[in-house]
Amino acid sequence: MFPRLLPALMASLFVGLAAGQAHAGLFDDEEARLRINEMRNEFNGRVGKLEAGARAQLELADQIELLKTEIARLRGENEVLSNDLANAIKRQKDFYVDLDNRLRKLEPHAAAEAAPQPAAAAPAAAPAAAVAPPVTAADPAAESRDYEAALTQLRGGKYKEAATGFIGFTRRHPGSSFQPSAHFWAASSLYQLKDNAGAAEYYAKVANQWPDDNRAPDALLGLASAQQAQGDAKAATRSLERLVAKYPSSSAAQIARQRLKK
To answer: Hey, where are the domains in the chain?
Structure first.
């Protein structure tokens, strides 16, 4: 009887082993797929983090470049302010020296006129039409004093007082050689006060009335900034394009080109 049961037992054992191997193979494939999915998700997560980091670095690099150009512009403005202040002080000193020399020359004449003179016939009165109207001469001392006072306010960060001072200067001294500078710094002060319309007006005057002045390129750049702040992007673009075309080698034009690329 045992010899007859042996083939049956062998067959059952073979079927059991085959089923176990099949189950083990199925289990290995499922585990492998899960592991592959986990690795794929982990890889995608790392790639996403790397891409986000790269974008952040590029944005940071752009911001750094913009800050560098803005610092360079502010440094240039500070140098111009210092130069203007030094020129104003020198001009005021020169004026007082010249005034002192003139007074010294007039002293002998004043002494001679003070001596008694023989009476002379009074000249006939001149016709009223021949009398010339008095001419108000420019006062260099007042110009220097007013301009220097406004500069001091601007350097101290008192933009409201500086704007008032520079605007007042432009009205009190219309023939002054400081007119382009006074208009420019009035615009800069108004821009700091968020008065973008007023800043644009004075920046435009510098660019239009004194195109050969060394502040004209910066005035166009400031005009574009004020126009952009007002929400007029088209006008700002036109101002930047005008700046690049008219003053291509200026430092302001370099900043304008970077803005036009964006």
So the answer is: 8-104, 146-262
CA 231 centroid distance within chain: 17
Q: How far apart are CA 185 and CA 155, in angstroms?
A: 11
Q: Which DSSP helix (H) or strand (E) runs through 224?
A: helix 216-229
Question: Measured between alpha carbons, how far is 40 from 221 in angstroms, rounded to an integer?
Answer: 51
CA 159, chain centre distance (Å): 15
Give just the sign of the alpha carbon dihedral 188, 190, 196, 197: negative
Greater pLDDT, 87 or 107: 87
Is the whole model's pTM more than 0.85, yes or no? no
d(CA 245, CA 249) in angstroms, rounded, equals: 10
Judged against a pLDDT cut of 60, whether residue 125 lies above it is answered with no
The pLDDT score that the predictor gives to residue 26 is: 52
Residue 106: its pLDDT value, please? 43
Amino acid at 12: S
Least confident of 33-42, 70-79, 192-201: 70-79
Give CA separation, 190 vs 68, 154, 202, 232, in Å: 23, 11, 9, 18
CATH superfamily to which 146-262 belongs: Tetratricopeptide repeat domain (1.25.40.10)
